[in-house]
Amino acid sequence: MTAVLPLAAVIIVLLITWGISINSSAAQERERNTLGEMFSPPTSVPKCSLSRVCPPSHIALRIRSGAADIVGPTVCFDGKIIMSHALNNVGPGLNIAVINGEYNTQTSHKHSWTDILAHLKKIKRGMIVLVASFDDVTQKMTNEMREIFSEMGSTLISSVKRRDSWVFAGRAGTKIKSLFEKQAVNDEKNNIYGGWPEMVEVGGCFPRVFSD
């Protein structure tokens, strides 16, 4: 019995020491996690409803055309809605947002086709141009207008016809083929809005910097 008691005491001391060690390690781990949460950068959230966060060299955008002649188009750039029915800055025809070097925006829609042509001619080379159709963009669309959009990188503008849905993002005067363009053809057999086709949209990460 005399020999057993010291052994039991040793076991108790070892258990206590082990318990203190475990608690100390857990406390240190909690402290590291807390410090990590305090000093780690906040998690980025995708902008413009994209499925991923754009890299620093690119900027998020999403363009949705109008639906028939009822619902106007929506344009999102860098996480901000810059054109929409709710903002009351869209209208039938071409809806255009021009992004300058500081990523400020200038918006316009079809008050008169003469104004639109003059506006397109004033856009400086390299500026980002976002376009969404609403109702019909071809009533007075000229070959000169189509050529300007082609020089921005559009490959579909030459085929856009009456009441087609069309969205586009490109750079003025660069002639670099855009990856951000989509068209739905007006076809009575396949239209989902009576005399109009489905709405179309494009979205993704657009390069911030233009280089020749």
TrEMBL record:
UniProt xrefs under InterPro entries: FAM3 (IPR039220), ILEI/PANDER_dom (IPR039477), ILEI_FAM3C (IPR039475)
All copies of the ILEI/PANDER domain together span: 93-173
Q: What is an example of a Pfam family matching this protein? A: ILEI
Keyword Disulfide bond (UniProt) = yes
**UniProt keyword list:** Disulfide bond, Lectin, Secreted, Signal
Where is the signal peptide, in residue numbers? 1-27
Q: Name one GO cellular component term.
A: extracellular region
Q: What is its main location?
A: secreted
The entry's localization annotation reads: Secreted
Q: Name one GO molecular function term.
A: carbohydrate binding
Keyword match Chaperone: no
Family, per entry: Belongs to the FAM3 family.
Name of the molecule in the record? FAM3 metabolism regulating signaling molecule D
Organism the protein comes from: Neolamprologus brichardi
